From TrEMBL:
Protein name from the UniProt record: Helix-turn-helix domain-containing protein
InterPro entries: CdaR-like_regulators, PucR_C-HTH_dom, PucR_C-HTH_sf
Taxonomic superkingdom: Bacteria
Location of the PucR C-terminal helix-turn-helix domain: 237-292
Length: 300
């Protein structure tokens, strides 16, 4: 039967220890110690039900010592399990991804360091030895972005790795929570692919990139081609306009960051407005121009 399944699912993998990859379904054949992992994209709901009648479907590796609350959260994230019944308050997910780890890196040591940062109890739900989700209840005292950034600097110094966080939105523990998790995770992955120099992401920061990616490629040149034609002639102008918009039209701050005189910055802004007819001093003009800068970056 296994040989037949490998023909049907050529992307299947076999291992004695299943990973916690949220994109894999794991099945165990009776009377063996081997697990078969199949990518979730290769399975329909009907196929999953059929395989569950033939094999034992596993949600977690029994050899991994986790608390009951973490186990329930992990089953919720990885499989079609409901929101844990103990979750009554609004909560948010802080996604994390670790890279450039040394061989001696110990996840449990880092886990304890993370828990010590929060003023209240949290659940750290690992998907692997390098990524997962922190579940935080909504309380009067919350971890803010500045505190997390300071912690990142300490983490990377102490553990010799790179870590990225995506701070999700607080949400009630209802039937929309799984959809929120899935959406946040996909947006976080987009940020890692495109803005890996940053360490902390939020939905607000990433929304322009998400909106841009939702525009069909065939339409991007039509919408932003004139902006690209201008920026391709002046590479510095693209960074100037993008930074100016990110700084909420604060010319003084932008000039300081770009090491240029404020009058020189104003000249570049006026040049862009004159050439494109887009007033980036307005919200709608700035948003459209920002998408144009993203398109220009994609084409470079």
């Amino acid at each position: 039967m296994i040989n037949r399944l490998t023909e049907l699912y050529p992307n299947a993998i076999f291992t004695a220890t299943p990973s916690l990859d949220p994109h894999m379904y794991w099945f165990k054949e009776n009377n063996t110690e081997q697990y078969m992992g199949i990518p979730s994209t290769d399975l329909s709901p009907k196929e999953i039900n059929i395989l569950k009648t033939l094999f034992t479907m596993t949600a977690v590796d029994e050899s991994i010592n986790v608390s009951e609350s973490v186990r329930l959260w992990r089953n919720f994230f990885l499989f079609d399990e409901p929101v844990p019944s103990f979750q009554q308050n609004h909560c948010r997910f802080i996604h994390f991804s670790i890279s450039n780890m040394r061989e001696q890196f110990q996840f449990d040591e880092w886990e304890e360091a993370v828990k010590s940062l929060f003023p209240h109890e949290i659940s750290i739900v690992p998907f692997s030895g390098y990524d997962g989700v922190i579940v935080e209840d909504q309380r009067e005292l919350q971890m803010d972005e500045d505190e997390l950034f300071s912690a990142i600097q300490a983490f990377e110094s102490d553990f010799f790795f790179k870590v990225h966080f995506f701070i999700g939105r607080f949400h009630s523990p209802d039937d929309k929570l799984k959809q929120l998790f899935t959406l946040e995770k996909s947006i976080f992955q987009l940020s890692l692919d495109e803005q890996s120099e940053d360490r902390i992401f939020t939905l607000e920061k990433l929304m322009p990139s998400y909106v841009f990616r939702s525009i069909p490629k065939c339409d991007r040149n039509i919408l932003f081609g004139d902006i690209h034609n201008l920026l391709v002639e002046d590479h510095d102008l693209s960074e100037t306009i993008k930074r100016y918009i990110e700084n909420q039209s604060n010319a003084t701050l932008t000039a300081k960051q770009l090491f240029m005189h404020r009058n020189s910055l104003q000249y570049r802004i006026d040049k862009f407005i004159e050439k494109t007819g887009i007033d980036i001093k307005t919200f709608h003009g700035a948003f459209f121009a920002y998408l144009g800068c993203l398109y220009n970056h994609e084409e470079d």
